Amino acid sequence: MSKRASSSTLTSINSRGVVLCWHKKPCVVNTSGTEANPGRQFYGCPFWMDEKKNCRFFRWVRMNVDEDKHHDSEIGLSTLNIEESLRLAECKAERRKKEKKLLAEELSRWMMAHEIMLAEGKRVNNEIHVIRALLVLIVLLNLILVVLMLHHVIMW
Q: Using CA atoms, how far apart are residues 131 and 139, in angstroms rounded to an integer?
């Protein structure tokens, strides 16, 4: 196995006790084929076969607490904590970068929709002014017609 190990001190476990990788996805259980740990089971990222998606999460399945302590001390836990923290920070930074891009796109769509609504509002407002002017003209024409009819009645 060429994957580098990482420590489990910052591991997430969901409400059902399922170990989650840095993607917050349920881990898969694999079996080590190394000389140092033959047959030992470990949790890994479910995307372990996809080099781009794999978050490199690693945690031994606990079988014997003493065995875990001995193995952790051999690996050099402090170095792995730093590597694990770095990977976690990189995943968070990438996620925030994607979120920022999505928010910027959504803001752009909202601004475009706002501009369209403003333009539509101005168009409707102009139409209302035209309709009001036409109504005033109709009222005036009706008044003129009434005056003419009254004048015609008086003349007869």
A: 12
SS3 string, 38-94, reads CCCEEEECCCCCCCCCCCCCEEECCCCHHHHHHHHHHHCHHHHHHHHHHHHHHHHHH
Residues in CB range of 144: below 8 A, 6 or more apart:
none
Q: Which of 88, 124, 99 is nearest to 7 (CA)?
A: 88
Length of the chain, in residues? 156
Q: Which two tokens stand for residue 69?
A: 């302590």
pLDDT in tens, 116-140: 999 898 888 889 999 999 999 999 9
Contact 29, 9 (CB under 8 A): no
- Residue 68 CA to residue 4 CA, distance in Å, equals 17
pTM beyond 0.90, yes or no: no
Per-residue pLDDT tens over the stretch 20-49 = 999 889 999 999 888 888 888 899 999 988
The answer to whether 72 touches 54, Cβ cutoff 8 Å, is: no
